[in-house]
Specification:
The protein has helices spanning about 20-30, 40-50, 65-75, 95-105, 115-125, 140-150, 170-180, 205-210, 235-250, 255-265, 270-280; strands at about 5-10, 35, 55, 80-85, 110, 130-135, 160-165, 185-190, 195-200, 220-225. α6 packs across α7 (about 170-180) and α7 (about 170-180) packs antiparallel against α8 (about 205-210). The chain is an alpha/beta fold and about 280 residues long. The protein folds into three domains: about 5-115, Tetrapyrrole methylase, N-terminal domain (Cobalt-precorrin-4 Transmethylase, domain 1, 3-Layer(aba) Sandwich), CATH 3.40.1010; about 120-225, Tetrapyrrole methylase, C-terminal domain (Methyltransferase, Cobalt-precorrin-4 Transmethylase, Domain 2, 2-Layer Sandwich); about 235-280, no CATH class. About 45% of the residues lie in helices and about 15% in strands. The protein starts with 6 loop residues before the first strand and ends in a 5-residue tail after the last helix. β6 (about 130-135), α6 (about 140-150) and β7 (about 160-165) form a beta-alpha-beta unit.
């Protein structure tokens, strides 16, 4: 009996076409079939790298209907590569049913790792990365979105959200209203592309920044939000802030020390300034 084919789950660039790995190019050039979320989009990527491959579309509307033919393809000993429009397949992209079906059929599934907007945003966000949860796109309608955010308000892990250009301002406003405007967050826009922008600030400041510069509301967004302070952790946070402020106050006036501490910690400057004044005995 012939060996079964391998299903390769292949990560592709999230923006910059140069971010594809040599192994990904080699795999896409070697397999007899590529299952792509959008064959036109993937076709441009392959053409850019000089790869000619037979493709079949696999997206949320046809994945169920394609399963039998793709599993049969693998069972006949033919390899298959799965790609999404950008980044790592199955992370907010189609492919879950195919990967599950391959496992259930006893077929080998292998990863060709690479770009992911979620990990990319986390790595440059300046938010805690030891524990995080990915929540995908918030609901589009305002009432549903606020209810959804309210359920996440006490989550202590760093939150990672995706958002579109049409709703990013409304989403950040709702985050500020629900989580508190002082909660630290990072907006990562157009990652790896020409107009990549990363801004870390309290949610209220991020909302004001987006409102004041409509150009920053264009593109694709990852929003990384610091988790809620765990119950009983406030004393530890205050002690850490005080230690930082005392070091800075030894060299700087209270207003400057608060400004530097705000940049380092992501905490509200006004709150830190008030605490700096208390620690310094009211000296400016």
């Amino acid at each position: 009996m012939a060996e079964s084919g391998i299903l390769y789950v292949v990560a592709t660039p999230i923006g910059n076409l140069g971010d594809i790995s040599p192994r990904a190019i080699q795999t896409l050039a070697a397999v007899p079939l590529v299952a792509a979320e959008d064959t036109r989009h993937t076709g441009r990527l392959l053409s850019h790298h000089g790869v000619r491959a037979e493709m079949v579309s696999l997206h949320e509307h046809n994945e169920e209907a394609r399963l039998v033919s793709l599993i049969t393809h693998l069972q006949q000993g033919l390899d298959l590569a799965l790609v999404s429009d950008a980044g790592t397949p199955l992370v907010n992209d189609p492919g879950y049913r195919l990967v599950c079906a391959a496992h259930e059929a006893g077929l080998p599934v292998r990863t060709v790792p690479g770009p992911s907007s979620i990990i990319a945003a986390l790595s440059i966000s300046g938010q805690p990365t030891d524990r995080f949860c990915f929540e995908g796109f918030p609901p589009a309608k305002p009432t549903a979105r606020r209810k959804w955010l309210e359920a996440l308000r006490q989550e202590t892990r760093t939150l990672v959200l995706l958002e579109s250009s049409h709703r990013v301002l409304a989403c950040v406003r709702d985050l500020a209203a629900t989580f508190g405007g002082e909660r630290s967050a990072t907006v990562a826009r157009e990652l790896s592309k020409s107009f990549e922008t990363v801004r870390r600030a309290p949610l209220a400041d991020l909302a004001a920044w987006l409102e004041g510069d409509p150009m920053q509301c264009k593109g694709e967004f990852v929003i990384v939000v610091a988790g809620a302070v765990a119950a009983g952790a406030n004393d530890a946070v205050r002690l850490e802030q005080d230690n930082l402020l005392q070091v800075l106050l030894a060299e700087l006036p209270a207003s400057r020390a608060a400004a530097v501490a705000a940049r380092l910690s992501g905490q509200p400057r006004r709150q830190l300034y008030a605490r700096a004044l208390a620690l310094s005995g009211g000296d400016q």
